[in-house]
């Protein structure tokens, strides 16, 4: 059997792996540019309220199921192969969408695509976190968020372009392009290394340390960094083995703090309300009096803004604390929500029949033109900027960092499950909310953002610059109060120095650990 060459450049590995994020982005905006087109409204009989909510949230419904099985699946067959397995359902789901005859079949196809996204959204961050160096982990995991955003942008403008095609071929063509990123992901995955921490966990120590060395030190298994990190992995694995198995390990000996942090950070990402803008800025644009191509392009530009500012954070993410970004990001988003909601509330007229031509039954108010409408658009964009700089990337990074080796795959699937449960709930809630409470929706999200900021301050210790094994101490019962923690100061540096000193003190090669020889 021919052995494929393996890629060990971490950034290249991340780019290939995060095509899973591109699938997520493609499916998000596969609806954004389509839901306001005449072809879509005519073919599906102008779906509104609960029906449109069901179509929009079908992705999240499937993702709940995918997230639920992702952890056990990943622990059994590995992070890389779990992602490959998920691609099968994407191909099936996309086929169902492209051939759909009614909204029931469309919902079914989006549920299948969501199943894939549930697995990839939870396991790609796990995979990236387990192969990255501690000081570069944020910038590696953030590539997942960038891939999601590029997927959203590309698919949105594909949908916008296909909107010029008459009849159902417009949305069928757009949805058919979802095959493309999946194809490249399937082709690229076999060339990626397995996670060294997963290899160690399943007893493949020799392969684990060789992979770790190839990633961290150009294949040198005697490099002090490799030895120090391997010793940390083995120490943590012994402790986890003594802690036992089953669901109790998620709550024993202070582990409940990490379970709570990993799951709630994903819940708050949804409750912060940014996805109302991401999914439905086309609605807000129409409320503000923008129509036709102007509304579509205005809505699409937000995705480019999203990418630009997340790209800025790619440079600075490991130089800024996770807590700082979460706390101030939530407060910034709260301010934007309050401005949008307040201006809409004070400067609108009711349009019971729906805004637009043909009327969109989900949009029942129109913001007064001029300064009020411009303010709504500007602060909607500003909310996306703040989200792109803070909660969008940091929530996924933080959720990937807080788990121990023995709980990481299942723990991250629990975190993603939390994300998708709230995503589904908000997807069902938002279209009826646009109809029934209109501008008050933004006030609700503003209050939730303030609550999120307080939660982050009280419960989340700083994980930036720590090794995954070192995070164990941050959440232990003897660990510091979250508000007393700060980024960096990793003990791995001291452990590397200790390895170097041991090597210097002995004429013979290091014998405390023979790479790959120690058994769990």
From TrEMBL:
- What is the annotated localization of this protein? Membrane
Q: Which Gene3D superfamilies match?
A: MFS general substrate transporter like domains
**Does Glycoprotein show up as a keyword for this record?**
yes
Q: Name one GO cellular component term.
A: membrane
- Transmembrane ranges, per UniProt, are 12-36, 48-70, 141-161, 173-192, 267-288, 294-317, 324-346, 378-399, 411-429, 441-460
Lineage, top-rank taxon, reads Eukaryota
Classification via InterPro entries: MFS_dom, MFS_sugar_transport-like, MFS_Sugar_Transporters, MFS_trans_sf, Sugar/inositol_transpt, Sugar_transporter_CS
> Does the record's keyword annotation contain Glycoprotein?
yes
Principal location listed in the UniProt entry: membrane
Domain named Major facilitator superfamily (MFS) profile: residues: 13-464
Membrane-topology descriptor: Multi-pass membrane protein
Record-linked PROSITE patterns: MFS, SUGAR_TRANSPORT_1, SUGAR_TRANSPORT_2
One term of GO molecular function? carbohydrate:proton symporter activity
Q: Which UniProt keywords apply?
A: Glycoprotein, Membrane, Transmembrane, Transmembrane helix, Transport
Which NCBIfam families does the UniProt record give? SP
What's this protein's family per the entry? Answer: Belongs to the major facilitator superfamily. Sugar transporter (TC 2.A.1.1) family.
User: Which protein is depicted?
Assistant: General substrate transporter
Naturally occurring in which organism (per UniProt): Diplogelasinospora grovesii
């Amino acid at each position: 059997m021919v052995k494929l060459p393996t890629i060990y450049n971490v950034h290249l590995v991340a780019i290939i792996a995060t095509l899973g994020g591109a699938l997520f982005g493609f499916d998000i905006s596969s609806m954004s540019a389509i839901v306001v087109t005449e072809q879509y409204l005519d073919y599906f009989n102008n779906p509104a309220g609960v029906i449109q909510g069901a179509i929009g949230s079908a992705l999240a419904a499937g993702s709940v199921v995918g997230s639920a099985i992702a952890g056990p699946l990943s622990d059994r067959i590995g992070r890389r192969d779990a992602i490959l397995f998920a691609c099968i359902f994407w191909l099936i789901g996309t086929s169902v969408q492209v051939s759909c005859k009614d909204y029931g079949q469309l919902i079914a196809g989006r549920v299948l695509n969501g199943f894939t996204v549930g697995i990839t959204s939870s396991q790609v961050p796990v995979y990236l976190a387990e192969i990255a160096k501690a000081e570069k982990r944020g910038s590696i995991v953030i590539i997942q968020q960038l891939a999601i955003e590029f997927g959203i942008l590309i698919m949105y403008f594909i949908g916008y372009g296909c909107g010029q095609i008459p009849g159902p071929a417009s949305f069928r063509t757009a949805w058919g392009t979802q095959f493309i990123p999946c194809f490249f992901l399937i082709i690229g995955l076999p060339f990626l290394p397995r996670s060294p921490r997963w290899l160690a966990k399943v007893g493949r120590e020799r392969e684990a340390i060789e992979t770790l060395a190839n990633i961290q030190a150009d294949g040198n298994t005697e490099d002090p960094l490799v030895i120090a990190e391997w010793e940390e992995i083995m120490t943590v694995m012994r402790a986890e083995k003594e802690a036992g198995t089953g669901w109790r390990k998620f709550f024993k000996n202070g582990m409940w703090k990490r379970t709570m942090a990993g799951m709630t950070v994903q819940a708050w990402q949804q409750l912060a309300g940014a996805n109302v803008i991401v999914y439905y800025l086309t609605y807000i644009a129409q409320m503000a009096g923008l129509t036709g191509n102007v509304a579509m392009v205005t809505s699409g530009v937000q995705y480019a803004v999203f990418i630009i500012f997340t790209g800025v954070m790619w440079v600075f993410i490991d130089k800024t604390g996770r807590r700082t970004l979460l706390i101030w990001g939530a407060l910034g988003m709260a301010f934007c929500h309050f401005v949008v909601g307040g201006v809409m509330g004070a400067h609108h007229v009711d349009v019971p029949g729906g805004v637009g031509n043909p009327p969109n039954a989900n949009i029942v108010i129109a913001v007064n033109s001029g300064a009020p409408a411009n303010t709504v658009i500007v602060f909607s964009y500003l909310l996306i900027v703040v989200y792109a700089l803070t909660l969008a990337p940091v929530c996924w990074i933080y959720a990937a960092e807080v788990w121990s080796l023995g709980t990481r795959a299942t723990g991250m699937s629990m975190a993603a499950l939390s994300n998708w449960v709230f995503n589904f709930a908000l997807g069902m809630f938002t279209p009826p909310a646009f109809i029934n409470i209109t501008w008050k929706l933004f006030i609700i999200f503003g209050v939730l953002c303030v609550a999120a900021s307080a939660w982050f301050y009280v419960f989340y210790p700083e994980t930036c610059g720590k090794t995954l094994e070192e995070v164990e101490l941050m959440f232990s019962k003897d660990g510091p109060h979250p508000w007393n923690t700060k980024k960096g100061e990793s003990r791995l540096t001291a452990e590397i120095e200790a390895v170097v000193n041991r090597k210097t003190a002995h004429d013979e090669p290091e014998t405390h650990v023979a790479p790959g020889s120690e058994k769990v």
